[in-house]
UniProtKB/TrEMBL annotation:
GO terms for molecular function: ATP binding; protein serine/threonine kinase activity. It is a single-pass type I membrane protein. This is Protein kinase domain-containing protein. PROSITE patterns: PROTEIN_KINASE_DOM, PROTEIN_KINASE_ST. Residues 1-204 form the Protein kinase domain. The keyword Glycoprotein applies. SUPFAM superfamilies: Protein kinase-like (PK-like).
Amino acid sequence: MQKNPQKDQTLGWEALDRISLGIARGLEYLHRGCNTRILHFDIKPHNILLDENFSPKISDFGLAKICDRKESIVSMLDARGTAGYIAPEVFCRNFGGVSHKSDVYSYGMVLSDMVGGRRNINAEAENTSEIYFPHWIYKRLELDEELGLQSIMNEEDKVRARKMIIVSLWCIQTDPSNRPAIRQVIEMLEGSVDSLEMPPKPYLSSPPKVSA
């Protein structure tokens, strides 16, 4: 996530909440606000620009694909995206069809990065500093444990963090049909955390090494 170096600072949970909602609204515009649907296919922190007010802008449309808004499944000849953020169906059709839900998966991984404060890496790692974050945080939610995240200062921070985690886990469901559309993501982020159901445990594994 790129930002002005003069404004470089640790972002609080209120700012992260606002940024996550801003990115989701940007994706909704691409998916629903244009005459034709634009699928980005490379949603990752490096392609989210923050202005001086930390308002996010989605950038780099080099891998984007334009399709009819009525199309639910997109035809693709080759995989596109960045390792760690690419949806499973993009590199293997056995997981389902490629669609706007593929961007939702990438958004979920970005949201997970924001919550964890680090890049999601090896799911098989034994070293705790390399544990795949979604796997680690899902278990904490499942056991109703403290989230163990840095910079949580009060109950409001805890609520924001919990909401972002649950939304991110819904977004990275392996089966695209289990993921919410980006419009539903916005509703979840704007709603109460108490109204959110715990998502099924996603198929958690190390992301494949796919080059753009």
